[in-house]
Amino acid sequence: MFKQQNNNLKVVKLTEGILVHTQLNSAYIPALRSGFAGYPVNPRWSGAKYSAWKTGRQWRKALVNGEMVVRSTDSILVSVNQVPDPEQESSAVQWGYQNSFLDNLLKRQKLTV
What we know:
2 domains, single chain, alpha+beta, 15% strand
């Protein structure tokens, strides 16, 4: 049998208008926010808090460099690879699927994603 992987992802507010999915313990969220905001590292932090701070810093750098974006539908910070390419969606519609079920599904995904 397959074991189900238990992903305890929670939505965390990094800054005003930017959310992110993370598995971090609640005790490390302030360090994550601090790194994302650009504050310096606290020398009294544990290794886990330093790692959370560094992750926040890397996410901010990736956002500035265009490697990550804030999804407009739900304000979640995601990798550019996770955002659907509008050209691909429009070309899929342009290919002219004649099945109304597929047309409706494509239109619905285009509106929600």
